[in-house]
Amino acid sequence: MPTRNAHPGPVAAAPAPASETNGIGSAGAWAAGAVVAAVLLWSHWSMLRALWRDWDSDPNYSVGRLVPLAALYLLWQDRRGLAACRLEPCLWGFALLLAGLAGRFYGLLYLFESAERYSFVLTIAGLTLLIAGKQVLWRVRWILAFLLLMAPLPGKLHNLISSPLQEWAASGSVFVLELAGVEVAREGNVLILNYAVPIGIAEACSGLRMLTAFVVVAAVFAFLVDRPRWQRATLLISSVPVAIICNIARVAATAGLYLAVDSRVAETFFHDFAGITMMPIAIALLVGELWLLNRLVTPDTPAPRAAARR
Predict the structure, then answer these.
(1) What is the pLDDT of residue 262?
(2) Rounded to two decimals, what is the model's pTM?
(3) Contact by Cβ (8 Å): 152, 164
(4) CA distance 125 to 270
């Protein structure tokens, strides 16, 4: 008996593999993000040029030019963690981009350069969210915050910090020199050594340059070390007193050279050699601080086991 050929019903098309779909979407997002990044770089070019001029002209913030390079290095160090993040472009990135552009517009309107520069970091965060998604943005949040250190402090904050630093440099140097047996008379920010050699503690001696450099170094160090968060935070916060102590040591050593040698040698030491030697000393202090923190925190010991019955 002949049999009828069964006509199969409509067969649903197999869905495309998730990797292909995500790959196409990610490629489109990357392409769109590259275009947006190029446009933003072009629109912020004048701000970046002004920022570079500030790095060149103001030694207090010359370390800022190293911040973007250090951020790229930190991203490379965390490449495995970033590779494990899920790439999922998020349209909320446009909201951050608009907020960054609004901040820049505010800076342009009111001639507030710091607003332009800080909003540029917000723009980078929006671009990251738009291209890579929430997981990647959350992963790099501290590196984005680190980028804020590349911008000089606003003028009011600069003056608010510089004056106390200058005061502490003068009073701390007096204390160290008197411990060393030098007679010091202080008149404001002028120190008179052995009642004969006057030394002025100018704004350049305040240690702001050393402070900004030490904060950047401590931030990179805190990111790289494998320690609990509270120890990393302690390390970063302690960079401020470490910078103050190192600057007092530099000013006191310079004053000693004024007495022992001459002013030319002392000024050369202050501007050249002292700045180079203080950085290894600061790093050694940070390493010693980590060692001390590890000694203060004792690991939990397991409870002794009960004796086994015979």
Answers:
(1) 65
(2) 0.78
(3) no
(4) 40
Tell me how many helices (H) and strands (E) the chain has. 14, 3
pLDDT at 33 (0 to 100): 63
Distance, CA of 225 to chain centre:
15
Q: Which residues pair with 212 in a beta bridge?
A: none
Q: Which residue has the tokens 């501290």?
A: 142
- Cα dihedral 256, 257, 260, 262, rounded to 10, equals -140
Secondary structure letter of residue 273 according to DSSP = I
What CA–CA distance (Å, rounded) separates 206 from 208? 6
Dist CA 163 CA 143 (whole Å): 30
What is each CA distance from 65 to 53, 109, 159, in whole angstroms?
A: 10, 26, 22
Evaluated on CA atoms 51, 57, 58, 62, the torsion sign reads positive
- What is the average pLDDT across 54-80? 91
C-alpha span between 112 and 151 (Å, rounded): 12
Read off the pLDDT of residues 152-202 as tens digits, 9 standing for 90 and up: 998 888 888 888 888 888 888 889 888 888 888 888 778 888 877 777 776
CA atoms in the 13 A half-sphere facing the CB of 171:
7
